[in-house]
Design goal:
One of its GO terms (biological process) is transmembrane transport. Keywords: Cell membrane, Membrane, Transmembrane, Transmembrane helix, Transport. This is ABC transporter permease. The chain has 294 residues and is mainly alpha-helical. The chain has a single domain (70-289), classed as MetI-like (MetI-like fold). The protein is built from 13 helices and no strands. Helix 12 runs antiparallel to helix 13.
């Protein structure tokens, strides 16, 4: 018995050493790219701006400016509203696609999943620029409306509007919403649907009482995956939005760029992170509530 234990001890040590060696690269990347960057942002947020890279002194003036200047509250609220509309539009349009993939795609499921992920093969900037061409004054949409006789001349009502930002972002993040909802729907046991049918439930009733509640974790995950990055997006508002579509990410980028005020940009970033953290906590609470019900 002691011989067997002695033989197993080196094997256990080598196994633990192998696991440590495999975990070490990921841990280092996590520390350097995430924790270090987050710590640097927090450090800069409490520094004063003197034109240098790391600022000077320790101060809370940056947060006081964010809290007292109505401009930042207005832009933050606009960012939350646009991100909320994008999330709603994306989830509402993604759910039917995910439902079809999970229950009706059959042998075509692999091909359709490939088509869903196909936008990942193209640049995000390229997709945004494509929407700019579609919505432009002499773009595809205006040309189609004029050719069909609906309008007699082009209009500026499509481009440089909040609606253009919502449509562009919803299209860009659609695959990120379809996949988690599909996974949640695909894991629902088919026996639950069969049991609902055997008990006389109509298709809509089975969907409302069985499918929808069990798919809510995927819906919430999709909502978070879309909402979190769109709050801080600045590329899309800059390309297809106008002054009325300025989002908080645009202001943060300008502080790190033209304004050369890194401490204030870091303070804005920290405030946005706190807002997003509150949204994530609310979503987690809702996820637990749905989980306890199902």
């Amino acid at each position: 018995m002691s011989t067997l234990v002695a033989a197993q001890a080196p094997e256990a040590r080598s196994s633990s050493g192998f696991r440590l060696a495999m975990l070490l690269p990921g841990a280092l990347v996590t520390f350097l790219l995430i924790l270090f960057a987050l710590g640097l942002v927090l450090f800069l947020a409490f520094r004063g701006n003197d034109g240098s890279l790391l600022g000077v002194g320790l101060t809370v003036d940056n947060f006081v400016t964010v809290a007292t200047d109505p401009l930042y509250w207005t832009v933050t609220l606009r960012s939350l509203v646009i991100a909320g509309l994008v999330t709603l539009a994306t989830v509402v349009t993604a759910y039917p696609v995910a439902y079809y993939l999970a229950f009706h795609a059959g042998r075509r499921r692999g091909l359709l999943l490939f088509l869903v992920t196909l936008p990942f093969w193209t640049s995000y900037l390229l997709r945004v620029f494509a929407w700019k061409i579609v919505l432009a004054y002499n773009g595809v949409l205006n040309s189609a409306l004029i050719e069909s006789g609906i309008w007699s001349e082009p209009t500026l009502a499509f481009l440089n509007t909040p609606a253009a930002v919502v449509v562009t972002l919803a299209h860009a993040y659609a695959p990120f919403a379809i996949l988690p909802i599909y996974v949640a729907l695909d894991t629902i046991p088919k026996s639950l649907l069969e049991a609902a049918s055997d008990l006389g439930a109509r298709p809509f009733t089975a969907f409302r009482r069985v499918v929808l509640p069990n798919s809510m974790p995927g819906v919430l995950a999709a909502a978070l995956v879309v909402f979190v990055p769109t709050v801080g997006d600045y590329v899309t508002p800059a390309m297809v939005g106008g002054p009325a579509s300025t989002m908080i990410g645009t202001l943060i980028q300008s502080q790190f760029g033209k304004a050369n005020d890194w401490p204030f940009g870091a303070a804005l970033s920290v405030c946005v992170m706190l807002v997003i953290l509150a949204v994530v906590l609310v979503a987690r609470s809702a996820d637990r509530r749905f989980g306890s019900r199902t």
